[in-house]
Structures are given as structure tokens and as C-alpha cells.
Amino acid sequence: MARETVTSEDVARLANVSQSAVSRTFTPGASVSERTRQRVLDAARQLGYRPNALARAMISGRSRLIAVLVAYLDNHFYPQVLEQLSRAVQERGYQVLLFLTDRGTQDQMVQKMLQYQVEGIVMASADMSSSLARECADTGIPVVLFNRYVTSSLSSSVTSDNVGGARMVTDLLISAGHRRIAFIAGTEDSSTNQDRESGFLQAMERGGLLPFRRLVGDYTSEGAAHAARRLFESDERPDAIVVANDHMAFAVMDVIRDEAGLSIPDDVSVVGFDDVPEAGWGGYKLTTVRQAADVMIEETVKILFEQIEKGEVERRAIIVPASLSVRTSARLPSAEKLERIIEGA
Amino acid sequence: MARETVTSEDVARLANVSQSAVSRTFTPGASVSERTRQRVLDAARQLGYRPNALARAMISGRSRLIAVLVAYLDNHFYPQVLEQLSRAVQERGYQVLLFLTDRGTQDQMVQKMLQYQVEGIVMASADMSSSLARECADTGIPVVLFNRYVTSSLSSSVTSDNVGGARMVTDLLISAGHRRIAFIAGTEDSSTNQDRESGFLQAMERGGLLPFRRLVGDYTSEGAAHAARRLFESDERPDAIVVANDHMAFAVMDVIRDEAGLSIPDDVSVVGFDDVPEAGWGGYKLTTVRQAADVMIEETVKILFEQIEKGEVERRAIIVPASLSVRTSARLPSAEKLERIIEGA
DNA sequence: TTGAAAGCGCTAACAA
DNA sequence: TTGTTAGCGCTTTCAA
Hints:
12 strands
């Protein structure tokens, strides 16, 4: 057990320079002569010196930490987001401090984030109390609600056009001649669900249709499977189902095919929301609304770093356009109609 | 922009106690009278005081940070691991500092981890140079290679019984009467792949069979799909395929059904490795070797925290038993034979 | 139990 | 360009 901590002072001594010279050598853009630089670097290498990021963070007030809070990782949309976000953040010399939350503990987690002096916060599908949002704003820490928004909040938000996307995919179903269209909702109090549902309802109304039925799946596989079972327990069956996200749609498709013994899309059409990788897999070929995760992340990172740099927090609400990923889980309208729907986005 | 940083000194002043009293109040197990405690807590609440975790980490030498490095999150085994690991770590008052690596940048990432003074490192499907491993050991930082091992390394490792698992699932195929069994490998230099492949080969040899064919899928969907296409381009077809992980197996199944127009398991049996959630989905129902992710994580966390507490790093290599998740993607042997295979694990 | 004092390893004025 | 100096906010002896 050596446990010998090599400090900048040790390096300075060996290199025969001041401790600040060492610091400067490791601070990009600081003024050091090439000669000193080399001497320091040599000494550092010899001793195996590694700057202490915590000490640096403390004094400079820049931790280079971005907190990311996610509620769960089993809906594959989030791992994808986490991966891309993490890479983007790393590219700028920052690191992700990860927080996995359970419902209700979000505020505690945010407290923890603040203790770690993170410079920015991303809340993926979760939100914080308005008092905490205020505290973050006061402290100058930008907060981005990812895939969710709260109108009253001080936090910025990045979402995709959930209303428009849902309208589009519902239009697709209606144009293809479906008349008994059911909706399986996600978590009812989430903004994504509310927007997707209202887009669905708008399209239905415009099409002169009433929702065939509406059930709640709470964004879980089990909830969705349960909802699907109820939908098919009587003979009064829907001819299409709009499911509030892909993760639930897969479970719904499983129930339809394996339990109800029906065929997709011949007997029932199913559409989802998100366009997670599995939606393209052969086992599902799900027609769904594509959320441009890459664009959403780009926007998130932009908000974060602009505000970190400027040192001022300001609320922004970005809505990224959604598009349609048309596959084979839903009966399609004629080519012209389809085109019109996609264009009308 | 308030940016007012409330320090323990501010709290001390308001509470009319010394700054150390404030520190003690927020240090579990420190000796403070109930009266002082309350005064401090009150003052802290009034001022919105939040201990600075970085300052605490610096002085105490305990960052309460665990670095987790993952290469990618699209194989669903890893998000699952990340979620569980993160929760386990949080339960102990630690936080995960996330690193997403590209091949070859691992050592750089480890340097960064060390700069952040993390107390432990988990490398999921990646490894570090032996010199760095030595450095970590010298610094007293436990390193766990998760789902991979390097015999020569100083790092601990937690894997499942890849050899045994592969043998089991191959036995299953052989007992069911398959004779032309192909193998689609993952990343060739990974220990998981090597072990799974050698388990496969052992079972084949014991069964008096030669591998029908062996291709490399590199643990990616694209690689696996490509391998599967080559496997079915001629009429000399396999009657079963052992795929080195589930993620690839799904792609293989897609090619078999959608491109080759064959039926699973009637024309070809397919088995995988990992038992990710999608393996149980209706679209695949993949018979696969189950890696007990929960146990693996338990062991990982145990190694980490035992060594953090003891302050001494010592190499441990844990192999967690694997089991079979039998579904319908592979033709089955008779019930007794099946039982014998499962028992023989 | 409490407070004073000495740093943890570093950055950032400031003067030279 | 360089070194000196003064902290960042906290924990942890040490004495009282």
C-alpha cells in the first residue's frame, strides 16, 4: 500500500519551480514558458502526478460535473439518451454524475447534486419541486427537463412535438380506414402522456371519431399488457391502438398475437411513440412516432453549456419536430394519403 | 443572480457556535450535544445551507464516488447493470460517475477517474492496461472488471460461468438432435467470447460433433446479421445456431425469419446468452443462458465496499453460476434429458 | 462536548 | 513569465 499522494508541490520541488508553475502547466491557456512547461511535465511524469480534480473544482468553482437523473433504464429510449448525452458532455471535458431515482425521491437527489457542486442538471422524465428549481436558478445552475416540461417551472425543457406526432400517427390510422381506435396512456400526470393523448384526441375529433376506448398502462410493460388484455377480453374489439410509447407497444403486440391470437396489422393495427431501436427489429416492425433523440440531446447540451458559460440561467423551452417511422404494424392508407400526412407534419 | 454560497461559517455565526460544531452536526457519529445540534440545524435551514461535498471529499479523502465505465448501452444487458449498480451504490451513500468509452480510450478515462479521486472503479466489458491497474492498486482503489477478466491483471473480476453456460445450452441443442450447429462469436478477444466459445466447443466434442461453421458477429447487430446472411446463403444450412449473446441473437433471428424465410425453431434453432429482458418478449422467446445480473452486481458491490473500507486492494475473481432460460427458439429434447442438462449445471 | 488552529491540493490575484 | 500569498469550504487533531 503506497498510498503516496503526489501533489503539485512535489512536482514543483523536483522541477525546481514554484508550485504555481505546476498549476499553470496543467491549466490550458495559462502563461508558462516552454522551458518551464517541459521541466514540469518531466517531473510530473517521473512522479506519476495527476492533478486533483476536486481541489481544482473547489477553488475554481467549476466541478465540470453534469448531474443526470433518470427514473429507470428499462425503456430503451433512456439508455440511448444517456449514452449520447454522456458522450457529448465528455467531449467538452465534463463528466456525468448519475442519479437513479424512485418516484418521490427526486428532490433529495437534487440536493445531493447541489452538494456535489454540479454545474448543470438534466432531469430525464422527472421534475423537481419549484422551490428547488428556484434554488438552482439562484445558484446559477441550469436545469433541463428532458422529455418533460412543467409550465410553471423555472427549468428549461427539451421535448419533441408530442402533440403533433400523436396527431400524425392517429391521422395515419384514420386515413387507413380504422374507426375503432383505442388509446393506451402512459403515466397520466406526465406531460408527454398528456400531450400525446391530446394530439390523439385532436386527430380523432378532426376525423369525426370518438376514441374507442382509453386505458392506462403507466409506461410499464405490465401495465400495458394488462390494458391490452382488457381491451380484448370482449368481442367488442378495437381495430387499432395508439400506444403512448414503444416500450408499452411491444407488450401490447405480444398480448395481441400470443394471447388474443390475432394478427397485426390484419386484425389490429398498433402504433407507438419514441422509435426506440427495438421498434425496427423484425419481431415488431412497429410503426411509430420518431423522437429525434440526437437533436433533443444537442439542444439540451446547448442550453446547458451556453448558460454555464454565461453564468446566467434563463428558461428555454425547446420543442423538437417529430416524424413518422412507418413500418408494418399498422395498415397503411394509400400512398398519396400517406405522403400528405407525412408532409403535413 | 444571487450566487450566495452559504458556508458552514455562516451557519456557525447565526447559530452562535463554532464552525467545527456545524461540521460535526453534519458528520454522522460525531459528538455534538442535542442542543447544539438543533441550533445548527435551525440556522442551516434558515440559510439554506448545503454541505459542499467536494470540500468534504478533499479533506476527508473520501469522495464517495464510484466510477463506472461502459463501452456502449445498446446491448440491453448494460443499462440493466448500470441501473442496478447505481441504485446499490446510492444506497450506501455513494454516487456513480459515468464514463462512456470508445475502444482505446479506456486508459485516458481511468486517468480522469483517478483525477476525480473516485474510491472504486467498475469496468463493464472493458479493461485497463496493467500499468494503470497497478497504479490503482497502489493508490488503494479497488477495480472490478465486470463481465470480463484478465488473468494477468491486478483487478478483481466478476463474471458468470460462461464456459459452463455455453456447454449447457449446447448440450440442450445436441440432446434435441441437432447435428449441424453453428457458432456466431462476439468480439474475439473478449474473455466472455472466448469462454463461451470454449464451452461450446467442449460440448460439441463431448457430443462427438464438429462445429458446422463459425462466424464472427463482434457483439453488434450488424455484425450478427451479416454473419447470419452468410450462414444461409447456400443450401448447406445449419440446423442450430449458438449465438454469443442475446443482442446478436435477435438480429440473427430476424435474418432467419425475414430474409431466409425460415421458421424458428422448426427449420433452425437459435440460442443466445445473457437473458436480457427482450429475450422474454413475444417477438423472440429466446432460449438463452441466463446471467444472474443481480448476483453479479451484488458481488461487485461487495468487493468494492469491502476493499474501500479495509483500505486494501486485493484481487478477487468471482464466477457466478449461470442457468438456462428455456423458451421456444430452440427445439427441445425430451423432458428427462432436459432435466438432466439443467441439473448437471 | 466544544472551539481554535492547522491544513487538504489547488487556483488566482498580485508584484516582481 | 514567474513566485508569493491568500484563500476555496471543509474535517480533524488538540486542548480546554
